[in-house]
Amino acid sequence: MKYSRLEIPELILCEPKINEDNRGFVYESFKKESFNDFLGFDIDFCQDNLSYSKYGVIRGLHTNTLNHAQSKLISVLKGKILDVAVDFRTGSPTYGKSIAIELSCENHKQFFIPRGFLHGFSILSEDAVVLIKIDRYFAEGESIGVKYDDENLDIDWKIPKDLEILSDGDKKLLNFNSFSSPFNYNTKLY
């Protein structure tokens, strides 16, 4: 597995080595030891979540409250998505900045997003199945979020406005600048 730090260095792109032949392919999608060695701290993923969505769906931007925040490793089992992380740590030199990565079942890339970041994705293919590994269990009532189309964030979700599909909850989220982040730059990311 090749690991690369992105423009926001806490965000990691993971690219597996694909072993392909006339039968198909196989690759190592996660190896705890090498991943933790690269990070410099231990991540203990405890749950895998699957998400199925059709073209035009935008999920996000979400995180959890400070004591229930989750680190995530995102991969795509079917289709293609635009995966987005926004630095939500007040005092961070990259506060409010985002990184968007296209993940697909064809490129096999994965995106690691630690605690302290907002996360969302849009479906760019006819449909998509997304696998999300998390390091803390879901806590009812602890989810928080910011509007996906906040003009201060200026994220291009690559979906025409008239084809966007959002949950009722995501439509009601607050703007980035009107929300008080529970995270600061010194927040422990793991």
TrEMBL record:
Choose one Gene Ontology CC annotation of this protein and give it.
cytosol
Instruction: Give, as one word, the top-level EC class.
Output: isomerase
Look up the record and name the pathway of this protein: Carbohydrate biosynthesis; dTDP-L-rhamnose biosynthesis
Determine the domain of life of the protein's source: Bacteria
Q: Which molecular function GO terms apply here? A: dTDP-4-dehydrorhamnose 3,5-epimerase activity
Keywords for this protein? Isomerase
Q: What is its EC number?
A: 5.1.3.13
Which Gene Ontology BP annotations are present? dTDP-rhamnose biosynthetic process; polysaccharide biosynthetic process
| Subunit field text | Homodimer.
PANTHER family named among the record's database cross-references: DTDP-6-DEOXY-D-GLUCOSE-3,5 EPIMERASE (PTHR21047), THYMIDINE DIPHOSPHO-4-KETO-RHAMNOSE 3,5-EPIMERASE (PTHR21047:SF2)
Q: Which family does it belong to?
A: Belongs to the dTDP-4-dehydrorhamnose 3,5-epimerase family.
Q: What does this protein do?
A: Catalyzes the epimerization of the C3' and C5'positions of dTDP-6-deoxy-D-xylo-4-hexulose, forming dTDP-6-deoxy-L-lyxo-4-hexulose.
Question: Mind telling me what this protein is named?
Answer: dTDP-4-dehydrorhamnose 3,5-epimerase
